[in-house]
## 1
Amino acid sequence: MDLKIVGGTIITAEKTFRADIGITDGKIEKIAAVLSDEAEKVIEAGGYYILPGGIDVHTHFELPFGGTVSSDDFFTGSVAAACGGTTTIIDFAVQQKDKSLKESLALWRQKAEGKAVIDYGFHLVLTEVNEEILNELPDLVESGISSFKLFMAYKNIFMVDDETLFSVLSKAREIGALVMVHAENGGIIDLLIKKFLSEGKTEPLYHALSRPPELEEEATNRAIMLAQLTGAPLYIVHLSCAGALEQVKKTRARRQSVFAETCPQYLTLSVDNYSEPASENELVTGFAGAKYVMSPPLRGKHNQTHLWQGLAEGNLQVVSSDHCSFNWKGQKELGRDNFSLIPNGVPGVETRLYLLYSEGVCKNKITLNKLVDIWATAPAKIFGLYPQKGTVAERSDADLVIFNPNKKFVLRANKLHQNVDYCPYEGWEIRGAISQVLARGKVIVKDNSFTGRCGDGEFLPRHEFEAAQILSV
Ligand code: URP
Ligand code: ZN
Ligand code: ZN
């Protein structure tokens, strides 16, 4: 045996139990109340929780967007992920104009290869679809890309029309793929943006006002209806408001295969952040809110209660980060005089577990087992990685977080590893801290320092979408 972790308390999505873990060749070989086998190395974990490494199914590393490129690449982004307990990410490769899907994917694989420090997979974003493109999809599923994302917003950039969404859903149903949607009504948003700008309303707050929750609820319902018509499963990304959740809830109640994720920012921040005063080192006032410009935007505070409840009740199955980092200086500033030019996105790949534990478990919004489910197990099941990833079980990869529930610390951008000049949660007091992170049996993080190696992450081909796999999700 290569390594033994002794004395810890294992947390899975189903249960909490005291046991030792034996690891050989990167896999969990044995779990037992007391392991008497010899091991080359022993980690004492008395008083600590052992969680599965996180699976973040929504990151945007090195994404060209909004006239710039997101500031974390596959090295800095994956180091930050690891330091936050995430051992697998699924990023979004984007279809390129005049390139086949295979070529577009190859471009994203090149960005990650030799750089990512944790295992990674890809969804493919489809922006333009014709018969030829649809015919490429089965081969992609075969090669481990079993989910496709479509945007119902970002007019003239990523947005597709309803016919495109319908034809991809129909194909997905045939070939065992999962369609993911960014559900906001991009056409109406475009009208509202133009209206505010023509009235001279240019501040970050108008980003939120041009994207009201009704437009998310409407698009969520439209996507659900089109999925129902085709019989395809559907996954709603970054759901942010009570109205959209209500659509998902009633759809699941009639047993249509619909899944949805939310993100820590929607659970903990609100529309009030757009009017935040500048901090001491930010000389220009009226623009601090740009840090929170993301789509969908932050919502009224009351939505948070609904989202936590949605997680607790199982109508939301996943919490991903939607990590898409842009520096406040030089990148968010592109929209200083026009909110619609502020690159959309916030950092969060490193803080997901901390916020879920401190704001969720410690405030009795979710149980510890539910945290494990939304953080690792359900994403692994929905996106074809289970049981290799997403749980603490014999024969699974030894991707583990050794977590100290009693430590407290304060979040500061300069203590995080994300390559971005701010943290949306600056100064927040956090309960619980990561002691060590293991990826395939190797310690890659210890006491907030990265100890792994550049390029050690492997590309993960994923299974096709299996209804049977996720009956419990
Ligand atoms: O504002 C966001 N969410 N930026 C990333 C792109 C997306 O819509 O997921
Ligand atoms: Zn989106
Ligand atoms: Zn995103």
## 2
Amino acid sequence: MATKVVLIPGDGIGPEVSGATVRLLEAAKAEVEWEELEAKPIVGHRKEDADADPVVIAVNRVHVALKGPLTTPIGSGHRSINVALRKALELYANFRPVKNLPGIRTPFHNVDLIIVRENTEDLYAGLEHVVVPGVVESLKIITEHASTRIARFAFEYARRTGRKMISAVHKANIMKLSDGMFLESIRKVAEGYPEIEYREVIVDNCCMQLVMRPHEFDMLLLENLYGDIVSDLCAGLVGGLGLVPGANLGDNAAIFEAVHGSAPDIAGKNLANPTAMMLSAVLMLRHIGQGDVADRVEKAIHAVYREGARLTRDVGGDATTEEFTQAVIGALA
Ligand code: ATP
């Protein structure tokens, strides 16, 4: 029986990359029944407001969604829909595997990192106010509960998949209380996993080490804001934002989405690279127990990259979104 999945096409390049991904999954005969919905800003701050949102209701019911990027206005305008959905659905773990693709030339080979980003608090709580004209206060919220929960997620994942090392990334030398508690919480969890090496690294030093010696890292465990920034840095290590998939995972639901945003500069031009979205769908297929289809889709993507003749502009080719998608469909075994 087909698994129901909520499809949120998103905006900007979202409809192009999600359309390409849906076509690929149909060609691969994935057993998925899509329920397409448009995500809109959640009005109001109460839990009941979020619980009444049609997308929140649908994802809570079917438990899985594939989502394109949604633009967040800069400076003013509505709050981020992406952040609101993660909070409303308690998708506390943001999981981002960063790996080289065959044929993409980058300064480093065999990069294989897992980023685990706390997804519900930190400066993303959006608690800002004007203290007096000219002075704004923005609150960074870190709790022991959320820090322990994300640490457990990371260490459990490492144990299950044989990962060897987790580096907690922080700025506890400056934010002694908040980042200090983040680290304290992780240390307690780490004690229960003696087989996994545990390290701590200050975020600025981490950035430098990553661009010089990425192989010295295995899994990175970060608060929300550092996780956002370091994710883009890591995407750059393997060829850019068009390539890195992601998942937002909670106990009841999961939303799979690319690391990139809506890229308004190339929206509607048939130029976007749908790989990150397609690889997010690969993660989704594994999550819903369709690992065989996931493997075939992933192999087809790798085959097109290995051949290198029909790649999109962001990775040095001249193919359109559509031409690349057709190439991947043609490479399905
Ligand atoms: P946000 O803050 O919304 O997460 P971002 O900072 O991740 O967004 P994006 O809009 O994703 O920024 O992208 C930054 C730039 O990277 C874009 O302007 C675009 O040129 C490029 N880019 C991102 N995604 C893709 C893609 N799938 N294909 C090609 N280029 C992309």
## 3
Amino acid sequence: MQFFIDTANLDEIKEAQDMGVLDGVTTNPSLMAKEHIQGPEAIMAHYKTICDLVNQNVSAEVIATDYEGMIKEGTALARIDDKIVVKVPMIKDGIRAIKYFSSRGIRTNCTLVFSTGQAILAAKAGASYVSPFIGRLDDIAHDGMGLIAQIAHIYKTFDFSTQVLAASIRHTMHLIQCAEEGADVVTAPFKVIDGLFNHPLTDIGLTRFLSDFQKAQEGVQEEKNNQTIKEVADAE
Ligand code: E4P
């Protein structure tokens, strides 16, 4: 199972990369806007900086929604770096564009997927990744996790090579359940990945180990001191 971080924030990407568990990054136009990255040149430069920070898989989303526009933009994005995965929305022209890119060896991530039918279309077009948005489905009282399970089951049954990239992850349980349901990749905000580290028993256990170690060291030191005092007394 792979871990991607869902952010365009360089500090978060660096910190997650330093943890040693990161397999990639997903961004979207909202996340880029949050970092105040504006204009085509700044956007391209920001993607390049992200690519230089991580080992593989940087999803960069096209803004165009027509076929020709997506081809032009996606081709330019793919030229930035081999790590770029062109993120294309789940619309008719998007599926055509995914077919175009996949036939040319350009990796794609079909985004804004909310149904199993959409995921089948993405796989048929040859998408490298399909991104079902779990949190946004849960927000409207639909079963996000059920969608992951169904897509994973169908892809396995028909041996589709498209990987299930669970997106719109809100909390650590989402991430763990996605793993259980067979998602190949989970992309999550930094706080969710970081949250996996936490367990009060780990903290309590570590504090106790260190304090027992400290006590043992003090005991050894006390024994040494007593021995020195004895040797001095014996010499007198
Ligand atoms: C995925 O690639 C998207 O960037 C992301 O997961 C959307 O998440 P949100 O619903 O929290 O905006």
## 4
Amino acid sequence: MSPIELSKRQHRIIDIVKENGPITGEHIAERLSLTRATLRPDLAILTMAGFLDARPRVGYFFTGKTDTRDLSDEIQKIKVHHYQSRPVLIEQSTSVYEAICTMFLEDCGTLFIVDGDSTLVGVASRKDLLRASMGGQAIETIPVSVIMTRMPNITMCEKDDSVIEVAQKLISRQIDGLPIVKKVEVGSGYEVIGRITKTNMTSLLVDLATNETS
Ligand code: ADP
């Protein structure tokens, strides 16, 4: 279904009703310095398209429906930190076996690996750990740092990045999640402060569909 293109005036009407509803057609016309008759087609379109509802003797009120253009503006304003999860961090000397246990216990799909100063050094995914377990290697003794994807090849984001920017990175890099990072005060590394995953993106989609974005 192609989205309906609203005129500038129709957007103005929605804004007036949002702020002042319930409001009569007469009063909307007054605010726009137009006649009630001039507005009639606009009000009919907005009511038929489901943006406004009209109650006899009460007036027009906003239904909560958002225009697609408003929706894309709204999505652009959503920052990563609105949808983040807690990061699961392990130290780089942790064995692959321990890393697998952590993944199960924490019920997550991506582990972030840090050095002794809590600076990000790598990422280990489910398949990285699975691959390491398949070769008959001693996973109890091999450190996770041997099998991880390491810096500087880690795709990261910051807490105020837009969720759309992050979703584009998840798709283009074909990964399940990103660390949300902050530059450390001293030195050139990054501290991990959060995690954003495809699951978080699915929550966002559901919130958008039910009009409940945070
Ligand atoms: P899986 O491998 O379990 O399907 P991913 O698709 O997330 O999970 O990971 C694919 C590969 O990309 C893995 O080798 C993993 O180490 C790497 N990877 C995962 N997340 C990132 C990231 N944020 N930056 C760089 N590489 C990543």
